[in-house]
TrEMBL record:
NCBIfam families in the record: CBO0543_fam
Keyword Transmembrane helix: yes
Transmembrane segments: 6-25, 34-52, 64-82
Native organism: Robertmurraya beringensis
Domain of life of the native organism: Bacteria
This protein's name: CBO0543 family protein
Keywords: Membrane, Transmembrane, Transmembrane helix
Lineage: Bacteria, Bacillati, Bacillota, Bacilli, Bacillales
InterPro entries registered for this protein in UniProt: CBO0543-like (IPR048147)
């Protein structure tokens, strides 16, 4: 189970952030940019939920809101770094 967490942390998160940033800067419309954001956000959040469901990671005080804020932070940090 440990390789699944490493793959998530070291490959999937950066890949989804890279896809989001690339899609964000190659499109001009605000609607399409928002769609890119929501698709990448949902993918990040779904991966974390799967990791929790299969007990690969466990948190003592896990909240949906904190997880969502963290995932939005990943995406915004990617935009900030590229800009």
């Amino acid at each position: 189970m440990f390789p699944a967490y490493l793959l998530y942390r070291d490959a999937i998160i950066p890949l989804l952030v890279l896809i989001f940033v690339n899609g964000f800067y190659t499109t001009k419309g605000l609607r399409i940019r928002a769609i890119y954001f929501f698709i990448c956000f949902i993918c990040l959040h779904a991966m974390e939920v799967l990791l929790l469901q299969y007990k690969i990671i466990e948190y003592l005080k896990w909240k949906w809101l904190f997880s969502a804020i963290t995932n939005v932070g990943y995406l915004m940090m990617g935009l900030f770094i590229v800009h």
